[in-house]
Specification:
With about 375 residues, the protein is an alpha/beta fold. It folds into 2 domains: about 1-160, 3-Layer(aba) Sandwich (Rossmann fold), CATH 3.40.50.2000; about 170-355, Glycogen Phosphorylase B (Rossmann fold), CATH 3.40.50. It is built from 14 helices and 15 strands. The chain has a 7-stranded parallel sheet, sandwiched between helices. Strands 12-11-10-13-14-15 form a 6-stranded parallel sheet, sandwiched between helices. A two-stranded antiparallel sheet has the order 8-9. α2 links the parallel β2 and β3 (about 55-60). α1 runs parallel beside α2 and α10 (about 285-290) packs across α13. It is elongated, with a radius of gyration of 21 Å.
């Protein structure tokens, strides 16, 4: 089976991490051959996949909708490769990739919504038209599915929910799918600095400016405690956030650590994961924090609550209300270590739902349908 995966960019972020985690497991030279096409720029993940011998083609084009030159370039590439399946991810990739695949008469065409789309007015009609050309649409959470159906872009029977996977070996404390209880990420000495951590792409939707301002208030509410906020990731908001941290005199309390290849090391040094995004489709960062055994504070908007499941390992917050975020962070500070440890253990157990093997199995069921 020849499969083409089409994405807009392949540098760093949730979609990129999903591909990095799953392409090696999906590729099977005897049965499955995977070609990755990147419409725009490559980067960390594309370079790593190419270094490991996987077939990645970076077009370096402008993926902004519509780019007819890009559309026909894709059509030509698909006619050359003759895939059995084309699987696109993200708005730009969905628009150009699904259309090109239909023109190239690819047998199975799958689009994927990677978040809660902010489609207004005519964009709803454009994507309804595009999705009609696909055989299936993958939604990364029930929240995403409900939203795109509600927009009228796709009918219920065409949507398949598949949660983003996480590499369970990402945390050495989860071995062969079995939870090892004795070394949770936050199992540190009581006198250590209490660390909140977030790992994400630094973009406005992650609501990091509000988080920084809330954290400033948290410091003044807890002058007797040594607390810190670590922000791990890169993106267009980095410089703005750095300036905010400096202007508020928080340089010793908030660390902007940039992109890190070894995120698990920072999670192991932390006590609580926090992600107050305005909305989340299906957060890979949250799932990784759960694998690491961290309790969490996450947005109630979108699919984050589905990732937590019934584990009672996190607190849901209203991302538009600073008081909601502050209250949750204070509650985590006030919890005993034993309480946080119990929450973290439940998070680890819940995270087993998001194994790569489970993801690949569900994906292949669609590919072969």
């Amino acid at each position: 089976m020849r499969i083409v995966r089409i994405v807009s960019e392949l540098d760093f972020g949730g979609v990129e991490k999903v591909l990095a985690n799953t392409i090696p497991s999906l590729q099977n030279d005897d049965v499955i051959n995977v070609q990755v096409i990147v419409l725009g720029k490559g980067g960390v993940i594309s370079s790593e996949l190419m270094r490991r011998g996987f077939n990645v083609q970076v077009l370096g084009a402008n993926p902004r909708i519509p780019n007819l030159k890009l559309l026909f370039r894709l059509r030509t590439l698909l006619k050359i490769f003759k895939p059995h399946v084309v699987h696109t991810q993200g708005s730009e990739a969905n628009f150009h990739g699904i259309w090109a695949a239909r023109i190239a008469k690819v047998p199975v065409i799958i689009g994927e919504e990677i978040g809660i789309p902010n489609h207004h007015s005519y964009w709803k009609w454009i994507f309804k038209w595009v999705y009609q050309k696909a055989d299936y649409i993958v939604a990364i959470s029930e929240a995403v599915k409900k939203h795109i159906i509600g927009l009228g872009e796709v009918k219920n029977e065409k949507v398949r929910v598949i949660y983003n996977p996480v590499d369970l070996a990402f945390n050495k404390q989860v071995v062969n799918g079995e939870v090892v209880n004795e070394s949770l990420a936050f199992n540190k000495k009581e006198e250590d600095t209490f660390v909140f951590v977030t790992t994400c792409r630094l973009v406005p939707i992650k609501n990091l400016e509000r988080l920084i301002l809330v954290f400033k208030e948290l410091i003044f509410s807890n002058l007797g405690k040594n607390i810190r906020l670590d922000i791990i990731g890169d993106g267009p908001e980095k410089e703005k956030l750095e300036e905010l941290v400096i202007s508020k005199g928080l340089s010793e309390k908030i660390r902007l650590l940039g992109f890190q290849t070894n995120v698990i090391a920072f999670l192991h040094e932390s006590n609580v994961f926090v992600l107050p995004s305005f909305t989340e489709g299906s957060s890979v960062s949250l799932a990784e924090a759960m694998v690491a055994g961290l309790p969490s504070i996450v947005t109630k908007n979108g699919g984050a609550s589905e990732i937590l499941g019934n584990s009672e390992s996190g607190i849901l917050v209203d991302p538009t209300q600073s008081g909601s975020i502050h209250k949750a962070m204070q509650k985590m500070l006030d919890h005993s270590q034993a309480t946080r440890e119990e929450m973290g253990l439940r998070a680890q157990k819940e995270s087993l739902r998001f194994s790569i093997d489970s993801y690949i199995k569900k994906l292949l069921e669609i590919y072969k349908s």
